[in-house]
Amino acid sequence: MSKIFYVTTPIYYPNGIPHVGTAYTTIAADILARWHKFRQGRSFFLTGTDEHGQKVEKAAKSRNLPIQEHVNEMVQNFKKAWEKLNIQYDDFIRTTENRHTQVAVKIFKTLLDKGEIYKGEYEGWYCVSCETFWIESQVVEKKCPNSECGRVVEWVKAEEYFFKLSNYQKKLLEYYDSHPNFVQPTVRFNEVKSLVTRGLLDICVSRKGLEWGIPVPGDPERSIYVWIDALTNYISAIGYDPEQSASSELFRNLWPADVHLVGKDILRFHAVIWPAILMALNLPLPQTLYVHGWLTMSGSKISKSRGGYRDLMELLEIYGPDPLRYFLMRETPFGQDLDFSEEGIIRRLNTDLANDLGNLAHRVLSMIHRYFNGEIPAPETLEPLDLKLKEEANNLPETIEKFLSSLQFREALMSINDLIVLGNKYVDETAPWKLKKEGKEKRLGTVLYLMADLCRMTALALSPFLPAAASNLWRQLNLEGDVHLQPFSEFSSGKLVSGRKIGEPSPLFQKIAEKKDASSKEEISNV
Ligand code: MSP
Questions:
Q1: How many independent structural domains does the chain possess?
Q2: How many percent of the chain have pLDDT more than 90?
Q3: Ligand 1 site: residues with CB under 6 angstroms?
């Protein structure tokens, strides 16, 4: 059996409700998981919440709630938002769950026994925000050297547990050299390489007096500090046991992960610390770490603390899941920042979704009702124009695979949209209404069969990206089963069965008037 595709998102801090920035990573992971499930019958998508540490503790205190109660409530908010966005994860790991804490403790203990973790004293620069100690030569004017941070660092002295990261400089550089696709895009990989080349310090993996954390085995005054707790979720969730013979079958089928999706803010943790921990555990490293850009508003990263944007649930109420998913994935290349705007969502909704896709489906379905009493006609002899359309449709699976294997969501969506535009052009050129007038019934049947088949192909192509619209179109075509459970062999043109009745056409998307203030949205027409 071929390895099951395994994709992860970072685990989110439940210090607030999820926002459109956290949705961004999660949608990308969902698309990949759905696509691989479609292609290979199975895939595994893990997401979850990172519940320990000061940030969460602080958030609970500010709400005057016991921490457990606060996180339970926030986790429900995440789950509700993901459900509304049609996110189909296979597992949701919470770092406060026993299945995680037990493994994190075992990992800590294993590394301690191996001498990879030691208790020691450290004195030097520390960045509270990045939770990182820095080499003296890296710190200029007391500023954190992390280019995404730059905050003022503190001079600290502490007796804590440390992971021997400094031992891994050479091994990591060798690994990077022999795995040129390990971190993508390349510009991020270069950042990592230069960071590691400059030198690595051991990292602190415990904290004294941290109220909300997993106690260090044998030293309950201290807690395992967040990164070793958080990063290990990727293996604890799937049944890893440091005593490897005890690891679950799921772990053996999934690990190493195919893609860890991360924002650029947590690149160093995933490209340096996590690989070193895995090396220390003698585990293989993930295939690819894909680092995406930020959603910004007026140039600043969207984040809980900055605010100033509409709540995710509210956005979903207004636009629905598909227009939001589409805008986020279609607007900019995945590795780059994306300036978020509701005008942008509306523009994409009105053009690509309503004008192109909605229009195509509606005209084809309506004509089949009008000219063939709602019954899918049988195709006759194909003309060069028909063959061209079929060929383009048949190229689609390979094109999507090519783009998604390098996480080019935008390009994959553009190629689907190209086919939709071509379909509309085909209708204009073949002019079925004229064929009807001229009594060319056979040609009319061929054209509408090919168009209905193209709608079927479009529904399949869009199923990972726009799950609700794909289901809706599938239903309108009255096709058998669930569009999301079709075998990949169906994704080929000409599989539509003639003679079947189609359903009633209804608009796939409602246009919204383009206004500066999108809060007073106004539907302008049915498509
Ligand atoms: N808990 C850590 C991750 C541990 S993973 C082992 C954490 N959590 S977080 O909630 O602060 O953010 C996690 C991720 O959310 C980011 O890496 C990124 O993927 C996503 N994003 C948060 N804000 C974002 C934007 N404004 N834009 C794009 N992604 C954003 O860090």
A1: 2
A2: 80
A3: 10-13, 21-22, 24-25, 50, 230-231, 233, 262-263, 265-266, 294-295, 301-303
